[in-house]
Write a structure and sequence with these properties.
Jelly Rolls; 25 strands; about 5% helix
Length: about 290
């Protein structure tokens, strides 16, 4: 195999016994991904936590090709992996082995193991697509699908089922939100990756509250739709040893399986969640009573 250059930032796993001694700077170094999007670049972070790769492709003046790099020791990126994509920018295109998929804002894609050539493009350089990426190791190839929150189904196009648009919370508890599930069993099959988007209604600021952990999978949150002077206070750590990271617009946080993952914003916002692990049961979680948090 020819020698390839390094294209990813590598991050190791962390013990909860160590994390409770971290400074603010160290917490951000280990768990915050910032910036996520860079114009005309593919940016990738490889975490040893369940081997997830989190990143982005933001094509503007040029097309961007996803390659394996030295870190994967693979002939091509999806030789042993699967990929989930959600576009939070302008309309764009994803080419997979010569097939073109038109991916609008808030559209998603699942690309199965074995796709050799993946190219990202934007329709308008003045309003470029922002393709957010989550990738996990895979053991078999599932069909590539374009996923739309609404519209008409077609060949290779999946529309999110009404039962996968779940409204939760209330304005009274400041957590009125809608969860839109993109990649999960029964809708878009994958080896282990699940992805979706949660939108908070005006006046609501809390996500994933009451909070939970899930030992059988980890999670990454991408926060966006946050004004320049706004922020989300992302809470992490063990339930009895909580810590926080201040997150700005279009920044992501890696959450180990032992950690809670809840956020409270200066105003309503949107976030994408991606989960990787051995269990794809969305409701497999260990809830934490608010009275038990420390």
């Amino acid at each position: 195999m020819e020698k390839r250059r390094r294209i990813m930032e590598l991050r190791t796993a962390a013990s909860p016994r160590d994390v409770k001694h971290y400074t603010t700077e160290r917490l951000r170094e280990e768990f915050l991904i910032s910036p996520v999007f860079c114009r005309d670049e593919i940016k990738l972070v490889y975490s040893h936590i369940d081997r997830i790769i989190t990143g982005s492709a933001m094509p503007a003046e040029k097309s961007l090709v996803l390659t394996a790099g030295q870190e994967l020791r693979a002939e091509y990126f999806l030789q042993r992996r699967e990929l989930g994509v959600i576009n939070i920018g302008g309309p764009g295109r994803i080419l997979t082995d010569g097939k073109t998929w038109n991916v609008g804002s808030r559209d998603g894609m699942y690309i199965g193991m074995g796709a050799k050539e993946i190219i990202f493009e934007s329709e308008d350089s003045g309003n470029p697509a922002k393709f957010y990426l989550n990738s996990a190791p895979a053991h078999m190839s599932y069909p590539t699908k374009l996923i739309r929150p609404e519209g008409e189904p077609g060949k290779g196009v999946v529309i999110v089922h009404p039962e996968n648009k779940v409204e939760l919370g209330s304005l009274e508890t400041s957590n009125h939100r809608t969860i839109c599930k993109y990649i999960l069993p029964g809708q878009v099959e994958s080896c282990q990756l699940e992805m979706g988007m949660t939108h908070l209604e005006p006046g609501s600021v809390w996500n994933t509250m009451p909070c939970h952990t899930h030992d059988r999978r980890m999670e990454v949150y991408l926060y966006f739709d946050i004004p320049e002077d706004g922020f989300v206070m992302h809470y992490m750590g063990e339930p009895t040893e909580t810590r926080h990271i201040i997150v700005r617009n279009e920044e992501a946080v890696i959450s180990p399986s032992w950690s809670i993952h809840s956020g409270c914003g200066s105003q309503a916002y949107t976030f994408i969640w991606g989960m990787v692990g051995e269990n794809q049961d969305f409701d497999d979680m260990d809830s934490i009573d608010n009275r038990d948090l420390r």
